[in-house]
Write a structure and sequence with these properties.
This protein is α/β, with parallel strands linked by helices. It has a single domain, classed as TIM Barrel. It has 17 helices and nine strands. The protein has helices spanning 7-12, 33-39, 44-49, 51-65, 78-82, 104-111, 119-132, 152-161, 169-177, 179-202, 220-226, 228-236, 254-259, 273-279, 299-313, 333-345, 350-357, and strands at 70-71, 87-90, 94-97, 145-150, 207-212, 243-247, 264-266, 286-290, 319-323. Strands 1-4-5-6-7-8-9 form a seven-stranded parallel sheet. Strands 2-3 form a two-stranded antiparallel sheet. Helix 13 (254-259) links the parallel strand 6 and strand 7 (264-266). It binds coproporphyrinogen I. Coproporphyrinogen I binds at residues 25-30, 44, 71, 73-76, 89, 91, 94-95, 148, 154, 164, 211, 213, 326.
Length: 358
C-alpha cells in the first residue's frame, strides 16, 4: 500500500484530486451476469451471510468498471437478521417481515433482541479488502471499500409496514401516536445499524455510508425532532473514517442531513449539485447525482447529463460522482463502464477545466 490517498478519500476530505472518483449505489448485483452466476441457488440473505460469496460480489464491479470504490455487498436488513428478526428478501419485492411491528408490545418484543454476532460480515469485508488492496485507484495502489447501514428511520419504515411501502404512513403515524415506542424502536435500530457499521470499519472499510432512503417522505420538523437524533447515534458508532449520509427526496433537509454527523452528503437526482452546494453553505463535499433513468436514455443524452452533473459539482469543495439513487436492474453494464471512463477523462476541478480550455 502506498501513502498516496485514493481519489475517493481525497474528495470526501473536501479536496479536489486530479481524477474525479466515481462509484454507483447498487453497483454490486442487479445488472451483472457474474453477479447472477455467483448467487445461483442462494437466497439474497444467504448470499450476504456467506463471506466468500459476499466478498466476490463486492469486488466484481471494481474489476469490471474500474470504479473508485467498492460498496460492501450486503443489505440494510442483514443486521436485523443477525439480531434474530424474522425477515426475508423476496425476489422482485424486497424485505418482508413475518410480523410487522405495530404496537407498544411489538416494539418491546423487538428491542429485547441483542445485535447478533457480526462474524460473517467481518470475514467478508476482510476477504474483499485483501483483493482491493492490490487494485489501483487514481495514483493510489489500492481501492477503498465503503461500508454501509440503513438509517434508523428507513429500517423502522420497513419494520412497521412489514414490507416496502410508498408513503410509510404507518411508520409516520406511530411516531406521533406513541412517541415512547417510537423512541424505543428508533433507538434500537440505531444500535443495530451502528454495530453493523462498526463491524465493517473494524474489518477494514475505509468509509461508510448511511442510507436513509425514505427520509424524503418526512416533513422537516418531524425529521429534525424524531429521526435525525437516531441517525446521529448510528453515525456516532464509528470514528476515524469519512461518513456519507444519503437520502432520496431530501432537498428540503440537506443541512439537517449533514448536521446529523456526516462528512459528505449524498444528493439524489432531483436537486442539482450547485443548488445543493448553496443550500449547504459551500463547505460540504457532495456525492451524486446522475439520474438513473438517464442510463437508458442513450449515450448522447447520458454523456451530456453526466458532464452537466460534473460541472455543477465543481461548486462543491469535493465531489464523488455517483447516481442519484441505485443502478436499475435492467441497466446495460457496458453503459456503466463507459460512464466511468467518461468521468475519469473529465477535469477534476473547475481550475483544471479552465486551464484545459485556455
Ligand atoms: O451494490 C450495492 O449498493 C451494495 C449492496 C446493497 C445495498 C447498499 C444492496 C443489495 N442493498 C443495499 C441497500 C438497501 N437495501 C437500501 C438502501 C439503498 C437504496 O435506497 O437503494 C434499501 C432501501 C434496501 C432494501 C431492499 N433490499 C430493497 C428495496 C425495496 C423497496 O422498498 O423498494 C430491495 C429490492 C432489496 C434486495 C436487494 N438488496 C441488494 C440487492 C442486490 C437486492 C436484490 C436482491 C434480489 O432481488 O435478489
Amino acid at each position: 500500500m502506498t501513502t498516496t490517498v485514493p481519489p475517493l478519500l481525497e474528495a470526501l476530505a473536501g479536496r479536489r484530486p486530479r481524477r474525479l472518483p466515481v462509484w454507483f449505489m447498487r453497483q454490486a448485483g442487479r445488472s451483472l451476469p457474474e453477479y447472477r452466476a455467483a448467487r445461483e441457488g442462494l437466497t439474497m440473505l444467504e448470499s450476504c451471510l456467506r463471506p466468500q460469496v459476499a466478498a466476490e460480489i463486492t469486488v466484481q464491479p471494481v474489476r469490471r468498471h474500474r470504479v473508485d470504490a467498492a460498496i460492501f455487498f450486503s443489505d440494510i436488513m442483514v443486521p436485523l437478521r443477525l439480531a434474530g428478526v424474522a425477515v426475508e428478501i423476496s425476489p422482485g419485492i424486497g424485505p418482508v417481515f413475518e410480523k410487522p411491528v405495530r404496537s407498544a408490545d411489538d416494539v418491546r418484543e423487538l428491542v429485547a433482541h441483542e445485535p447478533g454476532d457480526p462474524q460473517p460480515v467481518v470475514e467478508a469485508v476482510r476477504l474483499a479488502r485483501a483483493e482491493l488492496d492490490g487494485v489501483p485507484s487514481g495514483d493510489a495502489s489500492w481501492t477503498p471499500l465503503i461500508g454501509f447501514a440503513g438509517a434508523p428511520f428507513t429500517l423502522a419504515a420497513y419494520l412497521v409496514e412489514g414490507k416496502p411501502s410508498r408513503d410509510h404512513l404507518a411508520a409516520r403515524a406511530l411516531m406521533h401516536a406513541d412517541p415512547a415506542s417510537w423512541d424505543a424502536l428508533l433507538g434500537w435500530c440505531a444500535r443495530v445499524s451502528g454495530a453493523f457499521l462498526r463491524a465493517q470499519v473494524e474489518a477494514g472499510a475505509a468509509a461508510v455510508q448511511l442510507f436513509d432512503s425514505w427520509a424524503g417522505s418526512l416533513r422537516r420538523d418531524d425529521y429534525v425532532a424524531h429521526v435525525a437524533p437516531y441517525s446521529k447515534a448510528a453515525l456516532d458508532a464509528v470514528s476515524g473514517v469519512p461518513k456519507i449520509h444519503f437520502g432520496t427526496g431530501t432537498g428540503h433537509l440537506l443541512p439537517d442531513v449533514r448536521d446529523a454527523g456526516a462528512d459528505a452528503v449524498g444528493v439524489d437526482y432531483r436537486t442539482p449539485l450547485d443548488e445543493a452546494n448553496r443550500l449547504l453553505g459551500g463547505a460540504t463535499p457532495l456525492q451524486g447525482n446522475v439520474d438513473p433513468a438517464m442510463l437508458a436514455a442513450g449515450w448522447d443524452a447520458l454523456s451530456a447529463h453526466a458532464r452537466d452533473v460534473v460541472t455543477r459539482g465543481y461548486a462543491a469543495p469535493g465531489h464523488v460522482v455517483n447516481l442519484g439513487h441505485g443502478v436499475p436492474e435492467t441497466t446495460d453494464p457496458d453503459v456503466l463502464t463507459r460512464l466511468v471512463e467518461l468521468v475519469h477523462a473529465l477535469p477534476g476541478s473547475a481550475k483544471s477545466a479552465a486551464e484545459g480550455a485556455a
